[in-house]
Amino acid sequence: MPRKMLRQNLIRVWALPVIIIGIATVLLLIGDEATLGLRYDRAGIASGEYARLLMGHGVHLGKSHYLLNIAGLALVWFLVGNAFSASQWSAIIAANIVFMDLGFWFLMPGLDWYVGLSGLLHGILAAGIAGIWRSRRMEAMIIASIVVLKLGYEVFVGPIPGSGNMAGGDVVTEAHLFGAVGGIIAGTLFSIRVRPEASI
Predict the structure, then answer these.
(1) pTM greater than the 0.90 cutoff
(2) Is residue 198 part of a domain?
(3) In the chain, what is the greatest distance between 2 CA atoms, to the nearest angstrom?
(4) Residue 108: phi, psi to the nearest 5?
(5) Please, which pLDDT band fits residue 191 given cuts at 50, 70 and 90?
(6) Are 11 and 81 in contact (CB under 8 A)?
(7) Residue 186 in domain
(8) Which of 8, 137, 143, 164 lies 20 to 30 Å (CA to CA) from residue 153?
(9) What is the CATH number of the domain that holds 82?
């Protein structure tokens, strides 16, 4: 593949995660003011601060939480980023955020606040698995099995040991579950037009 075409392909595939990383980086640099002002906060949302429903997924507990999520995003995108077009991914990500927020609001009334990309990462991975299921079924089955085992552990046992220390705070494992379920639903809806060159 000519260098120019390779560069264009990389830009096309990686533009969306780079935008997400850019937003998260700016919010991290702003500091606690952004985190407190933009996190998913039940009381704030109830009083009409609806931007929290979106931006809460972009702010983090601190640098370690940010780095963990950014590394996770890069890995997930490497695995499944080619599963859908940029416009499809945009719709899937938007739908996934809505699904998680609805889960937080209606199924977790005791959740006062939440920050981070981890729920969205699970959603992207689950959607990608749905997208590549037919064309690369063995690889999809392996990754799906790992995701199911992880989610099962979190549901029945609790957070993965050490994950709270790495993130710098408590892990809201329900975000991972909501994200994965939302991702499966959204990915399945778009899988009819799945891209054949998924990278796994």
Answers:
(1) yes
(2) no
(3) 54
(4) -130, 65
(5) confident
(6) no
(7) yes
(8) 137
(9) 1.20.1540.10
User: Which tokens sit at 62?
Assistant: 């601190």
* Burial status of residue 34 (CB atoms within 10 A of its CB: 0-12, 13-18, 19 or more): middle
Does residue 200 form part of some domain? no
Looking up tokens 């993965």 gives 160
Answer whether 126's CB lies under 8 Å from 184's CB.
Answer: yes
Q: In sequence order, what DSSP letters do the residues of 104-121 get, joined into one string?
A: HHHH-TT--EE--SHHHH
Domain membership of residue 83 as a residue range? 3-193
Q: How many domains, the chain?
A: 1
Asked whether residue 199 is assigned to any structural domain, the reply reads no
Task: Quick: pLDDT tens for 44-87.
Answer: 999 999 999 999 999 999 999 999 999 999 999 999 999 999 99
Distance CA 38, CA 100 (A): 16
191's tokens? 């899988």
